[in-house]
Every structure is written in C-alpha cells, then in structure tokens.
Amino acid sequence: MTQETDLVSQSEAETQSADASCAYVRVDGTRCPGQIEGDGNLCFWHDPDASKEEDGMRSRLEDWAATGESMEGFILHFAQLQGVKLSSHEGRVLRGANLFRANLAGAHMWNADLQGTDLLKANLAGANLNETNLQDAHILGATFDGAKLERVEWGDACVNEKMAFDAQRSGNRAEALEKFEEAEEVYRTLRRAYDSAGRFEQAGTFFKREMTMRRMLLPRWSIDRMWSKIVSVFCAYGESPPRVIVSAAVINLLVAVMFWLVGINGPDVGLNRADGRIGIDMAAGLEHNVYSYLHCVYYSVVTFTTLGYGEMTPPTLFTRNLAAAHAFMGAFMMAMFVAVFGKKMTRG
Distance (Å, rounded) from C-alpha 165 to C-alpha 48? Predict the structure, then answer.
C-alpha cells in the first residue's frame, strides 16, 4: 500500500511539474521547460506581455543558452542584447523568435539558426552572423553596418518577395506592389552590407535581386520593364560577363540561320546553289548544308563584330537590313561586354 501511495504521489508531482512549465510547443513537438511566471501559461521568454527591456537581459539569455535548451519562439522585442554571446558549434536555435527592434549590436551569433526570425528594424551593426541560417527571416529595416556575413544561408528569396508573388498570383496587385517594394529595400540593404565588407560576389547577387524587384514594380507591358528584362537576360544587370558572351553566341547562330535560309552572295567555294548564293539547298546532302551553314555563321560573326571583309554580301533588301541591324547589335553587345567585364574586374 505504501509503495502504491508513493507511486501516486510521484505521478501527481510530475503532473504538477508539467503544468507549471511553459505551454509553448516547439516545431519538433517538445515543450518549453521554462517555468511559468505570472498568471498566464507561458514562461517569461514566451510571454508577449513580459517586458524584455529590463537590465540584465543579456546575461539572463546567455544563462539560458548555456543550458543547451532551444530558444525557439522567444519574444525578445526591444531587448538590449548588445554583445550577447550566442555562438556555438552545435548552433543556438532561435527559430521564429521575435527580435523586433532588438539591439544586437556586436552580438556573437555565429552558426545560430535564425530561420523565420522577426528581425524587423533590429540593430545588427557589427554582429558576427557568419554561417547563420536566416532563411525566411523578416529583416526589413534591419541594420547590418559592419556585420560579418560570410556563408549566411539567405534562401532563394526573402520572405517579402515570396509574399509579393503570392499576392500577385491571388490577384491582389496593390499588396504585391507593396511587398515587391519591401523586397527591393531588403535586397538593397544586403547589397550595401556586402559591398562595404568587400564581398563583391554576394553584393552582385543581391544587386540582381534588387533590380528584379524594381522591374516587378513597373507596369507589365511598359517599355521600361521590357528593357529591364532584356538587360537581365543579356548581362544579368551587369553582373555576368559570361552571359554577355553566351547571348552574343546565341544571337549569331540564330541570325546565321536566317542568312542560311535566304542565302548570301559569296565566292565559289563549291557550296553555291543554282542562284549562286551560299545557303540551304534541299537538293544537296546533309554535309553540304552543314558546311553552307558554317559559312553563314562566319558571315554572321564578321558582320556582328563589324569586321566586314567584303567577300560575302547580303543579296536582298531583307538580308541587307538584317545585316545592318546585326552589326548595330554587335557594336552594342561588345560595348556591354567591355563595361561589364571592367566593372567586375575593378570591383573584384
């Protein structure tokens, strides 16, 4: 009987202990072990009504982190956490935490998991954010001056961009424009942060995203938006010299097809059709037509680069106008390549 009584007492104690702990349930299904403070059913860290602006918040948070317990969902808005030390090889978990307007200047947060964290208007100046996970974090208005941002996981798009496209798909144009504008600001902030840190490759990545968001703000069928898309395709807004080369190669091959179909005047190289032109000949074999196409590629390239040796000429009004437009495009693309390549080299 005594043993049964002891078991019942132990069970009741465990139930009371569980009831005294925080009601917050983490994503993995575990419950926060923090003790309830006040009249609610949440611990100090998860209670949205508990003030986090009091003195000693930094050391109190570091003490919790030292236990190895997760800080998922902590409400830390307006908290003064300058220089807080949360770096860890295991990675401190702050997923979904609310750090709205928190002062994290000089914070040590290397390898921290900040996915989905609310960092709106937070001060992260000089913070060590190397190797942190900031996917889907709300960072609009946050300050990253002097922050260390090496190998940060940002994800494919910021949360504002995702919300913008969701609103656009649902037909809410006004909300989509608002979110695209917010996304542009987020990418501009990150681009400047990486630029000032001398991380030009990452800065270029965010510059492309920034310009893409700016394009999405323009009227759909406007000339400015179409021009912006062309610049994106041809050179990734000045961030990709290889894309200029690939675009030029594709243009030359496509224009060569048009020259090949119409035919061009040229010297007798054993490939001329009955009309004297070099081009596609349905009566000839595959090898003959391959070689005639390669001659048209050659003519396309010398026209594109404005070399113009003169041994091959366009025979019709259409091909003459095509050659003129192609030469103009070539001059433009070569100037673009020089500008883009020079920009990358001087920044790099």
Answer: 31
**What's 219-267 look like in SS3?**
CCCCHHHHHHHHHHHHHCCCCCHHHHHHHHHHHHHHHHHHHHHHCEECC
CATH level 3 topology of 242-347: Helix Hairpins (1.10.287)
**pLDDT tens profile 12-31:** 444 444 567 899 999 999 99
Other residues' Cβ atoms within 10 Å of the Cβ of residue 124? 25
Structure tokens at 79: 């908290």
Q: Which DSSP category does 310 fall into?
A: S
Work out whether strand 264-265 and strand 277-278 pair parallel, antiparallel, or are unpaired: antiparallel
* Cα–Cα distance list, 202 to 15, 106, 153, 232, 235 (Å): 52, 22, 12, 17, 16
- Mean pLDDT calculated for residue range 30-45: 89
Q: List strand residue ranges (DSSP E) for the chain, in order.
A: 264-265, 277-278
Closest CA to 180 of 161, 154, 167: 161
The domain segmentation of the chain, as residue ranges, is: 242-347
